[in-house]
Each structure stands twice: as C-alpha cells, then as structure tokens.
Design brief:
The complex is a heterotrimer. By secondary structure, chain A is an alpha/beta fold. An 8-stranded mixed β-sheet of chain A has the order 2-1-3-11-4-8-6-7. In chain A, β9 and β10 form a beta hairpin. The longest helix of chain A is centred in the first third of the chain and has 16 residues. Chain A is globular, with a radius of gyration of 22 Å. The termini of chain A are far apart. Chain B is mainly α. Chain B has 13 helices and 2 strands; from the N terminus they run ααααββααααααααα. In chain B, strands 1-2 form a two-stranded antiparallel sheet. The longest helix of chain B has about 40 residues. Chain B starts with 16 loop residues before the first helix and ends with a helix. In chain C, α2 packs across α12, α6 packs across α7 and α7 packs antiparallel against α10.
C-alpha cells in the first residue's frame, strides 16, 4: 500500500510539474551575448508590464542560429547576419529584425588603466601574434604620452561561435588583407594565438583577471565593468572611442530592405569603425511544428515592442537605438511576418 | 521458470490449495517443479509477473547501453564517412571552412589527464598507505577518511570556480617567475584541478587493494626484522602492484571525461598546445563549448564522434581496470 | 656495524612515515581552501532574499537564486522518480541471480554506464529527447541525470541485498509467502538502509552536475515548475555567473556554491545517519 501512496505522489508531482504546458505566455529565445544586458533588461520590463515571460539564453550568435534552425526556440539572436548560403540552408524563410546598435570595444588589462590609441596595423599585429609586447614601438608611437610596460600581450578571443567575433573580424578583414587570407572572417575563426572565453561575459571576465591581456567585447561589457577602452583609428584617420554617438554615426548609411548590413570600417569622420547591428531572427511563416497562432502573435508583438517602446532602454545601457531609417526598415520586415499566410501585424 | 532451492531437501510449500483447485486440477502428489510450472501458466500469477518485471528491468539496462552506443555511432556517421582517419591526425579544427581535425583535443585530453595522474600518485598512494597500513582506525583516520569523502563530493563546477579564482592567480605568479606568458589558465592548471579531483577516487581504490594484501605475508616480513617501511616497500606494494595500477587506470578514465572544471581553467584554445602552460582544449571541454552552436551536420557529427571516442575509451579503461581489480581480489 | 645498518633503516622508516603523513594531509589542503573560500565569499551573500528572490537583470543589484534552487530540486525529483524503481529492480535482479550470462552482461553494462562522461549522457539526452520534442525541458535534464544515477543505485542495491543472509528469504518462502512479497516486504525493507544510502549518494552526485544540463535543461531567468520547459539549476547558475565579469554575479555564484555544497554535505550526512540507524544487524 506504500507503493500506491508513492504512485499517487508521483502522479501529483508530474501533473503539478506539467501545469501550464503549452502556455502561450512564455517565449524562448537564444543567441547573441552582444545585446544580452539590453535584452535581459527589456524582457524583465516586458514580463512585468505585459505578463509574457521571455526566456533568453545568451549562448552566442552561433548557438542562436543553430537553435532557430532546430526550431527549439521561438527566436534567435545574432550579430552576424545570415549569408545567402546560410539563408538557403535554413528550413524556412528567415527574417532579420535589427534591435539596436553596439560597438565592439578593444579592452585590456594594464596597470593604471590608460586609454590607448590603436591603429588598424596595431590591431592586426596584436591579434596575428606579430606584436607581442605592450611597449612595442608601433604602439608606443601612437601613444606618445603613456609609459607602456614591458609585459607580454595576452590575446583573448571568443571560444564559441560569436557575432561579436564576426563584427570584429569583418573589420579586420576590411583593413588587413593578411588577416583576410590567414585567419578569415566569421563567427568562428582560426585564431593564431590567444585564450578563449565563453561569451562576451567570459572574455570580459578573463581580461579582468589576466594582466597584460587584450580582447574585444561589446562596449557595455567593458564600460559596465570599468575596463579601459581603446580608441580606434577609423578610415578617415581620427581616433574614435566607442560610444552611443560614434556608433550611431557609423550606422548612418543606406540599409538594404532585408536589413542585412555591415557597418564596420566606416568612412564617417566621427564614426567608430568596429560597430554593428544586432538582429533577432525569426521565421517569416510562423506556422511550423504546430506553433499556435497565439504564440506567433505574441512573438510578433514582442518584436514590435522591442523596436519601439523597448528602444528607451538602449541608451541607459550604452547601446545605440535604431535610427529612423533603420526603424522603418525593421517595421517593414516585421510586417511580413505571417501565420498561415495572414499578416500578424 | 522454477525457483532456486537453497537446499534441495527442503520442499517449499509454494502454492496454496486454492490455486490447485482454481486450476481445475488436483496437483497434490505432483512435484514442486510441476506445480510451479502450472502456476506459471495461470494468468494473474504475481510471482511470474514480478520476475518478468525484474527481467525486463535487467534487459533495459543492456538495451540502454546498446542504444547509447548505436545513437552515438549513427550520429557521428557523417563525420566518420567524410573525414575518415584525418579526424585523428589533422590538427586544424576550423568550423568555418568545414575542416575538423581533432588532434588538438586528443593531445589536450591526454596531456591534462596523464599529468593529473602523475601529480596525484604521491598523494593517493600516501593516503591509501596511511589509511591502509598505519592508521586503520581511530580519530585521525576517521578525519582523513571523511575529508577525502568530502573532497569527492564537491561538484565539478565548484572546483572550476574555485580553480578560476584561487588556483589560476597562483599559477599565473608561477608563470611570471618562469618567464612564460602569464595566462594562468592552461593545461597545467587543468591538470592540477583534475589531480585534486581524482585523488579521492584513486586513493579509495588503492586502499581497497592494499587491504587485501594477506597479513601473514606482512607479518612474516616483520618477524624477519623488516621495518614498516620495508614491509610496505618490498611486500605490500609489489604484491598490490597490479591492483594499484588498475586503480590508476580507473582514475584516468575519470579524468578523461571531466568537463566543467576543465573547461573553466584550460583556456579554450583550439590549437595544438606547445607547452604545458599553453591554453588548450580537451575533447570534453570542446564539446561543451561548441555543441549548442554546431550549425551544420558535419560540425555536429564531428562533435558526436568525439563523444563516441570518449565513450569507447572510458568503456575500455573501465572494463580493463575493473577486470584487473577483480582478478586481483580473487587471487588474494 | 650492525647497529649503524639498523639505524639507517630505522631512520628511513621514520622518514617514510613522515612523507606519507605529509602528503596525506597536504591533500586535504585543497578541501580546506575550497571550503574556506566558499564560506568566506558565500556566507555574506546568503540571506532570505537571496534564497527566495529571482535573479535580476544584468547590472542590477539584489535578486537571488530561488529559481535555481527550485530547478535543482525539480531535476533531482524527475531523475529520482525515473531511476529509483528501475535501479532497485535491476539491483534485485542482480542480487537474486548471482551467476549467469545475462546478470554478467547487466553488471558489465552498469559499470560501463557509470564510467561514461556526463557530457556524453547530455548529448544522448539531447538527441533522444530535446530533438524529438523540439524544445529544451527540465524533463530532458532530469532524464540525463537519471541515467547518471541509475548505475549507482543498481550497484548499492545489489551490494546491500547480497549482504542479507539467504536464510531470511528462505524462512519467508518456507512460510508460504509468495516470492514477490518476500522480496518486497521482507528482503527489501531489511536492506533499506543500504538502498537509501545509495539513493542519497547518487542524488548528491548529480545535484552538482552541469555538463548534461547545458543542452537539455538549458536555463531560465524565471521560476519554472513546468517540466516541459527549460529550467535553471544551481550548477548552471554557478557556471554562467562564475565566467562573467560582473561583481554581483560573482558574489551570487559564491553564495550559490555555498548552497550547493551545503546540500551535498547534508545529503552525505543523512546517508551516514541512515546507514547507522536503519542498518539491520545480522
């Protein structure tokens, strides 16, 4: 009879535990760590104001794309837009909805936390392993007033598939042909040297701990953790630090209708050269794998909110909001979301 | 299906008269085995059902293991077919270009595990000798034993966390002294953490084995005037040698599959390590890092192939290790 | 001459003993360090809020780890419900069938299963459940953990039951008690201490497992009791927070580590008590 009691308890456990199965007040997303601080704030507000819980796991842009492909998430986050080949590889038409802009900061751990200037040649040299001491003449020349220590440079990059890496290597590929041929451009590349950190958070964590280290992280990760941020020389010659303004300036170009654009190596005088959009990826046709109309509706509503009301949370967290033209394109993209062919918005 | 008789001369009055009647036959006079057979044919035979359930549970274990193996094999087929042997000797792991050579991970795994084993040997041997030969019981022995058990119970992720913030700065200071790139993370740190983690396991196994050494051998040596040290060195250790080696082998198996603590302190670099202070990756940590984002089939299959290799290697090590220990216990 | 020889041997003997003692106690040092750091950094973080509140968005202070604690319990609950009956059943089978081909193979399989790295089990759970259902879920994480618990429960059940003298079983059978009742009502309760110990030890082993949860239970910032949805867990939280740069998250990770270590300690302690108090002496 003890067994019967046990079985009843088990039954109760499982039914309690499955309570709410199929609830449409929950959405699951995964992907880029680049916008994670912003998304976690946005979704917290969205949950308390609209009652819809959005669970976003920051596993990297590569992970976001993969999980969207597997249809295990409602939407994916990525700072690397899908190439034409990758788009073809997805089991359905995928829409790119830009949500904000961010800058990829060069951050480092040095005594005194000096603000250093970097030229494309220096960055290429460091990450290729050619420049391996901080007091290398190339670096010293561009930073005349600062006494650089004679310590080794420890490179930190991403260990996972990363849109931040995609933006960074995209920039390096444009300014250095050596980089393009030797290492390449993309979410995961064949780094010649360096340590790997998981996610923007992992890289920032490592940089904080390893003296003499340098790496690339989304700007807010460096800023929020009071890490020094380097100024990068853009193609018009000025040394620009990443900021809400310099990133917005860099985005001031014509955007294609599907919003897939790279804004690195901007020619704008005050633009930060290593910046990029980050996108939410969803399927255009939302009726797949038994998705309910309600869920599709909630997904489209969430995205609409993110590019409108949600934008007020960008600046306080050091992200740049969508420009007017980008917002227009984003709205147009969202309006093509359908359920069974019928438009959702 | 009959039942076992411990003593054949005792007949168990297994079935009741109701059963005999219900069956429509009078079974008195028939042998126990025949009665049992008849009982088996009755529907609602609770014992048969029970034995059947146990049997099915046992089969499930076998089926589960086979299913795991087959699943791993099938899922890694695309990579086995396309890459073949190059998987094993190619040192380039480049998901972007579709080139998957797992050599860096093999080397990383072997280096960390063997180094960990090496570091752990003096410690686990000392503990097993201490507990097995010197202080078999008593307060101190109980203390040491509890401490080692506790060490075994600490979760891997906490080892990694602690290692990241306490061990890594220490290793970094060492690296600065040695003039090596002061990452702090790397193969050496991972090996240190692994060594700490496998000490409880290998010392428990070694202690089991040392306990099995016959006392008359030891006493014979003692009566000949040997010191305790000489007894241990010339009698106990050589005698228990195979068992101790098996214990080391089993701890190696444990170290090979360790994931979380390693991935937090090894530096996550996908190239062939050039020194023990370099960053690297092990098979397990590479899988943990890249599985969630393996976007194309070849990538995923390569990662599963590594999992398959881990499965096979740990399986072989476990079977051999346990076999040696069993043989050793039986011989003793 | 003889005296010198004996002296040097005695000296070697003493040196050896000191080396053994030295290394033995040196190996406890990491334990002391780990516990010291966890208590030092985690104790100050513990508070009622910490245990009852949900994590806050990145960069905001406050918040807690309540969903991780509940998530860990849910995962352990699912894993136990799945592995206990199965594990005990297989253990009974092995104890009752000491020799034979199938028992040998089953024992072998249990040993192999115990040695499989937990990340491989995580992959299996991902392939079998996450991909089939099409979503991450606490259920898949629980199943992965259940597979890790299974061999431990099998082995401890078998060992416990083997220690019970067969005369007990025979006495029961001789009195006319059917076989299944003998096992369930006589043998099993006698061995309950060992079986419960095995269950508690297996739970304490999987409570801290992270690798199999990475791509099964996935994670969540919310409280979730629905087993078909992703769920947060203590080890996952520790892993995510420990590798981040945020001070708040790092302190939360220490606090969560303290909670997890306490959980493991309590389980081990209860297991010891159970072994002593419930053990039936023969």
């Amino acid at each position: 009879m003890g067994i019967k009691k046990l079985l009843v308890m088990v039954g109760v456990f499982f039914s309690l535990a499955s309570f709410g199965y199929g609830a449409t007040n929950e959405l699951l997303g995964a992907g880029a760590t680049f916008p994670y601080p912003l998304y976690s704030k946005m979704f917290d507000i969205y949950s308390s104001s609209k009652g819809i819980k959005v669970n976003y796991q920051s596993i990297g842009s590569g992970g976001g794309i993969r999980q969207l492909k597997n249809k295990t998430v409602d939407f994916g986050g990525s700072d690397a837009f899908l190439s034409d080949a990758e788009l073809k590889d997805m089991p359905g038409k995928v829409l790119h909805v830009p949500t904000c802009l961010g800058g990829v900061a060069l951050t480092y751990e040095l005594p005194g936390k000096p603000e250093l200037k970097f030229t494309p040649v220096i960055i290429e040299g460091i990450f290729l392993g050619k420049i391996n001491k901080w007091n290398d003449p190339l670096i010293q020349k561009v930073n005349p007033g600062i006494k650089l220590p004679n310590i080794a440079i420890a490179v930190v990059h991403r260990s996972d598939g990363s849109g931040t890496t995609a933006i960074f290597t995209d920039y390096l590929g444009k300014v250095s042909s050596a980089w393009k041929t030797k290492v390449g451009v993309g979410k995961s590349v064949n780094w010649p040297i360096g340590l790997g950190g998981k996610g923007n958070a992992g890289v920032a964590g490592l940089i904080r701990q390893v003296p003499g280290s340098i790496g690339y992280v989304e700007y807010s990760y460096a800023f929020q953790n009071k890490l020094p941020i380097g100024k990068v020389q853009n193609s018009s010659g000025s040394f620009i630090a990443p900021s809400i303004e310099s990133v917005s300036v860099a985005a001031d170009t014509k955007m294609p209708d599907d919003t897939r654009i790279s804004i690195t190596n901007t020619a704008a005088k005050n633009g930060y050269p290593i910046a990029g959009f980050t996108w939410i990826l969803v399927y255009a046709e939302q009726n797949y794998e038994g998705r309910s109309a309600a869920k599709a509706q909630e997904t489209s509503k969430l995205l609409w909110w993110m590019i409108h009301e949600g934008q007020q949370y960008t600046k306080p967290l050091d992200y740049s909001p969508l420009s007017k033209s980008a917002l227009l394109k984003a709205e147009n993209v969202l309006k093509t979301m359908t359920y069974n062919g019928k438009k959702l918005l | 299906m009959g039942f076992r008789c411990h003593n054949r001369q005792i007949a168990y009055n297994y079935d009741t008269k109701e059963n005999d009647m219900a069956n429509g036959q009078l079974l008195e006079g028939k042998s126990i085995m025949e009665k049992a057979k008849v009982n088996k044919n009755i529907t609602g035979n609770p014992d048969g059902v029970f034995r059947g359930i146990l049997y099915i549970a046992a089969i499930f274990m076998v089926v589960l293991l086979l299913a795991i193996f087959v699943t791993l094999l099938v899922q890694s087929m695309p990579s086995i077919r396309k890459l073949g042997l190059s998987f094993f000797y190619n040192q380039i792991w480049d998901p972007v270009s579709g080139e998957f050579g797992a050599l860096p991970f093999f080397v990383g795994t072997l280096l960390t595990s063997f180094l960990a084993l090496l570091i752990s040997v003096p410690f686990s041997l000392s503990i097993s000798i201490f507990l097995g030969e010197y202080y078999k019981e008593g307060f101190v022995s109980g203390l040491l034993r509890s401490a080692i058990e506790l060490l075994a119970g600490i979760p891997s992720v906490i080892y990694g966390f602690w290692g990241l913030f306490v061990l890594v700065p220490v290793v970094r200071a060492l690296e600065i002294k040695l003039g090596v790139l002061p990452y702090g993370v790397g193969i050496f740190t991972a090996a240190l953490i692994l060594a700490i983690m496998i000490v409880p396991y290998s010392s428990a196994l070694a202690r089991e084995v040392i306990n099995l050494v016959p006392t008359d051998l030891k006493e014979a040596a003692l009566s000949l005037g040997a010191t305790k040290f000489e007894v241990i060195r010339y009698v106990v250790i050589p005698y228990a040698r195979s068992g101790i080696l098996a214990g080391l082998l089993l701890s190696l198996g444990r170290a090979l599959g360790e994931t979380m603590a390693v991935t937090m302190v090894i530096g996550n670099a996908n190239y062939l390590p050039t020194s023990i202070f370099a960053s690297a990756n092990t098979m397990a940590s590479a899988i943990a890092n890249e599985f969630a984002e393996a976007a194309d089939n070849l990538y995923l299959a390569s990662l599963v192939e590594m999992a398959l290799l881990l499965f096979i290697v740990t399986m072989i090590i476990n079977i051999i290790g346990k076999y040696i220990i069993k043989k050793f216990s039986v011989e003793v | 001459m003889m005296k010198n020889g004996v002296n040097s041997r005695l000296v070697k003997d003493k040196i050896f003993l000191s080396i053994v003692i030295f290394f033995s106690f040196l190996s406890i040092l990491p334990l002391l360090f780990i516990l010291f750091y966890i208590v030092k950094n985690g104790f100050g973080v513990l508070s009622l809020d910490f245990i009852t509140q949900l994590p806050k968005p990145v960069g905001e202070t406050g918040g807690g780890i309540s969903n991780a604690i509940i998530g860990t319990f849910i995962l352990i609950g699912i894993a136990s419900i799945l592995s206990m009956p199965l594990g005990i059943g297989i253990g009974i089978y092995l104890a009752e069938n000491k020799s034979g081909k199938l028992p040998y193979i089953v024992r072998l399989c249990a040993e192999v299963l115990q040695g499989i790295p937990s990340i491989v089990i995580g992959i299996i759970a991902w392939i079998w459940i996450v991909v089939q259902i099409g979503s991450f879920s606490a259920l898949s994480g629980g199943i992965a953990l259940g597979m890790l618990m299974l061999p431990i429960i099998v082995r401890s059940t078998e060992e416990t039951l083997k220690l019970i003298p067969t005369s007990l079983k025979e006495a029961s059978l001789a009195l006319g008690v059917p076989y299944y009742r003998t096992i369930l009502k006589v043998v099993l309760p006698t061995g309950i201490s060992g079986i419960v110990t095995g269950i508690l030890l297996s739970i304490s082993r999987v409570a801290g497992e992270t690798a199999p949860l990475l791509f099964t239970a996935f994670g969540s910032p919310y409280m979730n009791t629905n087993i078909m949805k992703p769920v947060n867990s203590l080890p996952a939280l520790i892993f995510n927070y420990a590798t981040s740069p945020y001070e708040d998250w790092l302190s939360a990770a220490w606090g969560a580590s303290l909670v997890l270590v306490l959980l493991v300690l309590i389980l081990n302690f209860i297991a010891k008590v159970v072994t002593k108090k419930w053990k039936v002496q023969f």
